[in-house]
Design goal:
Elements (H helix, E strand, L loop, with lengths): L5 H14 L4 H15 L5 H13 L5 H14 L2 H13 L5 H17 L2 H6 L1 H10 L6 H12 L9 H10 L3 H7 L1 H22 L12 H23 L5 H19 L5 H34 L2 H10 L5 H18 L2 H18 L4 H15 L7 H10 L3 H24 L1 H10 L5
Length: 433
């Protein structure tokens, strides 16, 4: 390793600053400026790249708006009504509460676009419901909540998909469509595993909700259930762009919770805006750092050099996708998902394009891998979040999450090797890939 090389020095600087506790976004900006200085380039380029990237990327506006929509939902009773609806549908089966956990994640996925928002919002409620009266072990409830939460960013709308669209120039509308069947496949894999485990471990059967109450429960949840329909219908009918749909999502959550359900106060709205601002600032700083560092990577011609290097191995498209799966699953254990999307994925895209891999299919494979990284030991972020929420030991949560991880890895293999599953809906709506 030659520390006199500007690029090597900047990479080492990012690692050192991150280990010292500096946020990764700040570390990337500082190290990129160090690169520009040592390479004899204009250091003002860092500010230029940051400002141009942030101000010309209209699609980035969707991120804070989807976050705000999720915060407003959790502040009101929309989430609680959805849980009640899910319980009425699948709660009557053995292991019904566990099935409710997965179903609510699938429905909630159409509103928040964030796995962490799902786990921290509805996850808290599900943890309490599943562990009350000792129905389920705390570690199993926490593991299931973490596993079901990763479905959220696969089914549209999805914040990681928005960021992938930013770095790949792939159509965000077709990416949203492409995530529907894979997300449903992941949910089906989890629910099948729960059905098997429920019989094996003799999980309880909940008191069924009388069928005569189902219309009333559905009516109470109907405005919340219509949110994904409004968003996706607006996008695919051409009425609004995905970014405009994010604004509609936030406005819809505010109107339904505030005016129809009447369970939002000025204080809760303020705290929702404040929480979403903090989360957005954190993500925004990470994106800003990545935009500057990506300039450094481009100057060093890293993407093209890596593409040429990988092509020298004469990899087939399937071979390359297997390699990508392995690399991203390993990185997902160690790095935050947005960092992988902004730093690692742009380096892989030229090779994928050279091999003729469809960018929409590649995007879904990438996002699924990154989401699985959130529950992959030893450093899956959702595992730590659920440890704090549940109070269960991390070791026990890891033990209970492994079967779900293996089930979803099986689904990932299907998604990887059968592109038609991913591209079926986009092609149905006119995608030519």
């Amino acid at each position: 390793m030659n520390l006199a090389d500007p690029f090597t020095l900047s990479v080492v600087s990012i690692v050192v600053l991150s280990l010292l506790g500096l946020p990764i976004g700040h570390a990337m900006i500082a190290s990129s400026i160090l690169y520009l200085y040592t390479a004899g380039l204009d250091m003002g380029t860092a500010a230029e790249q940051l400002l141009n990237g942030m101000f010309t990327s209209y699609i980035l506006l969707a991120v804070p708006l989807f976050i705000l929509a999720a915060e407003l939902m959790n502040s009101g009773s929309m989430t609680e009504r959805l849980l009640r609806f899910c319980d009425a549908i699948v709660g009557r089966f053995r292991g019904g509460l566990a099935q409710v956990n997965v179903l609510q994640s699938i429905i909630f996925a159409g509103m928040s676009g964030s796995a962490i928002a799902d786990a921290a919002g509805t996850g808290k409620m599900m943890q309490k419901m599943m562990t009350s009266d000792g129905k389920y072990p705390a570690s199993y409830a926490a593991a299931l909540t973490a596993a079901s939460s990763v479905i959220g960013p696969i089914i549209p709308p999805s914040i990681p998909v928005v960021i992938y669209a930013l770095v790949s120039d792939a159509s965000i509308g077709y990416l949203f469509l492409a995530g529907m069947i894979p997300g449903a496949l992941m949910g089906a894999a989890q629910m099948a595993l729960i059905a098997y485990t429920a019989r094996k471990r003799n999980f309880p059967v909940e008191k069924p909700v009388p069928l005569r109450q189902l219309p009333r429960i559905t009516l109470r949840a109907f405005p919340a259930l219509m949110m994904p329909v409004v968003l996706l219908g607006g996008i695919y009918s051409g009425v609004m762009t995905p970014t405009e749909a994010a604004a509609v999502a936030a406005a819809y959550a505010l109107l339904i919770s505030g005016l129809l359900y009447r369970d939002l106060t000025l204080s809760s709205i303020y705290h929702s805006v404040l929480a979403s601002a903090r989360t957005t600032a954190s993500i925004g700083m990470l994106i800003a750092g990545a935009l500057v560092f990506n300039y450094v990577v481009t100057v060093e011609n890293i993407p093209n050099a890596l593409a040429a290097y990988l092509q020298s191995f004469d990899l087939s498209p399937i071979g390359f996708l297997i390699l990508v799966n392995i690399v991203l699953l390993i990185l997902g254990c160690l790095l935050e998902g947005t960092t992988i999307l902004l730093i690692i994925v742009p380096v892989l895209i030229p090779t994928a394009q050279a091999l003729g891999i469809d960018m929409v299919h590649f995007g879904i494979v990438v996002v699924v891998n990154i989401m699985l990284g959130l529950i992959t030991p030893p450093y899956g972020l959702l595992l730590f979040i659920m440890t704090n929420i549940s109070g269960a030991p991390l070791r026990a949560i890891v033990r209970d999450v492994l079967p779900f991880l293996f089930a979803m890895l099986t689904a990932l293999m299907v998604i990887t090797f059968v592109p038609g599953i991913v591209l079926f809906l986009p092609r149905l709506f006119g995608y030519g890939g």
